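We treat protein structure as text, and this decision shapes the records that our systems exchange. The tokens are whole numbers drawn from a learned vocabulary of local backbone shapes. One such record is reproduced below, unchanged from the form in which we store it:
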Amino acid sequence: MLRLAVFVSGRGSNLRSIHKAIRERRLSAEIVSVISNRDDAPALAFAAAEGIPVLSLERVPIDEHARAVLEFIGANGADFIALAGYMKLIPAEVVAAFRHRMVNIHPALLPDFGGKGMYGHRVHEAVIASGATVSGATVHLVDEEYDRGPIVMQRTVTVEDGDTPETLAARVLQVEHAIYPEALQLFAERRVDIIDNTIIIRS
């Protein structure tokens, strides 16, 4: 079973989908801490209401983020990190401490439409502007760069004629909610091998 620290910045819809999957026994995990870069993140309020220990980094000096995060999640016994709409680059010290034990979900088919500044509606605007006929969601390992870690799982959606960033985002979000718990369950079942920075899923 995974002991998850979940990082959030906004509403926390992926946090809620993970929480629901755990309740429904589709995911062998426990959320033991939730961290945000914003005091007012609705996701933080949701976690607190569920009795999950929470930490806001908004008032913590940037150069103390790594220490604060590692101390907090260590005190709560986390052994895996899931980024769920977290809009800040993870400190290198945290990446090193959780190498191959930290994943993110991105609202596009990486390696396209990823990188610094590519989040939220910006991603969907770029997909539509490119003329792409498919988009989707990607779960990937986290390294020191935005959206560049090895891919664990992807699922596609069709970009429809007349799509707006809002309509495309809504369909992609449904996919995110489906595949994130599935990907985490692969780690819970120890079915993910990482060899030479390449993901191998065992049956």
In short: The chain has a mean pLDDT of 96. Strands lie at 2-8, 29-36, 54-56, 80-83, 102-106, 134-141, 151-158, 192-195, 198-201. The radius of gyration is 16 Å. The helical segments are 13-23, 42-49, 65-75, 92-97, 121-130, 165-188.
